[in-house]
Amino acid sequence: MSVEESGMDDGMWLTTEQAARRLGVKRETIYAYTSRGLLRRASDGTRGSRFRRDDIERLAARGRKTREREGSRAVLESSIALIRNDRLFYRGYDVLLLCRGMGFENVSHLLWGASVEALPAVPRAWAFPREWRAIADVDRGRFPLPLDRIVSGLAALSGAGHRSVIEEDCTVEAERIIAYAVYCATGVLPVEHGGVAGALARGLLPASERAVMPPALVSLVDVALNLAAENGLAAPTVCSRIVASVGGDMKAAVLAGLCAMRGTAPGAAAYRVEELLGRYYENPGCAQVAKLVASDRPVPGTGHLAFRQRDPRAAILLERMAAEWPPDTELPAGGALRMAALREALADIREAGLVPVNLDFAVSALCFVAGMSPGAGEALFSIARVSGWVAHLLEQLTQNTNFRMQFVYTGPVLRGSNG
Known about the structure:
Strand order of the largest sheet: 1-3-2
Strand content: under 5%
Structural class: mainly alpha
Radius of gyration: 23 Å
Largest sheet: 3 strands, antiparallel
Shape: globular
Helix content: 40-55%
Distance between the termini: 48 Å
Order of helices and strands: HEHHEEHEEEHHHHHHHHHHHHHHH
């Protein structure tokens, strides 16, 4: 809809810059509000986007009320992860150090409370009960995207009578659920292909290209899993903890997190990053980032709410990719051209003055350069995040937090009441 078509004059509309200044946020945040349906956008065809002034004022008022109530909001204590000075720590360990010498299985057990000294040098590969395989295979052909297969498979498992109580063999159950999610996504068993990273590296490639995996792909996938495992109380994590707080089993809690992941920025951004990089691959020099910026549309995979200057996890993964796959590396199935497309997209993002890319972008970039199937980035990200959710479920059992939220009633005046 254009401003002219709306029938309203410019006094009722604000530009992107005006809206951002009024709310005290960045342009990227305005784009995020638009994608979530909090703002209505219109275009006059020449000056970019306009936003309804009453929407902006409503959000500004909501922000004031939130700040007024901030002193009484619930605070949840956690010993799992910490973000400080744009650095991420798991149980007190800098994630950069963990990525240098620890695989995903060991990082998961560290998050779940194991001491570093107790972790085996070579952890055993994870398996799941044989009867679960048939449940995953039933609907495999119905869903083209791996994350859809994970959600469907876990929902079917939860409804098939395989109920598990979180308190009983919780870490073993967590291993089984993650291995099962990998199998749902890929049809490959971690126990037969070098663990979670090996199964994902092989299974997320098209079947025709699995015989020629790009070198170092397994180690890069392992790094990506470690980086994506945990970053605090994001919305999907809170959803998982809420299910655990009311006595739900681990499968139900993980399923809740996965469903929330599909509707949040990380879940949605990963697939859009693949599409963005695909444009650069198919049309070098397309300046797709500049086109998005010019039309006031968000560039997927940029910015992060928890990190102020940059997402260190993205920097770690992209630096590892550059080191493992320099320009003269022989990558199969057009990998060198996809890496060139990635470099061009990153250069355009820097030239546009946008905030640095986040981990969602980096994980999707890894999957894109490796030639993985569509949706591989969001599947890899989600499987990694299950490890963090399990850590929060275990912590929830010790805290017994009441998640009943307080709210302020803003509805109509009450009628028919005696008091």
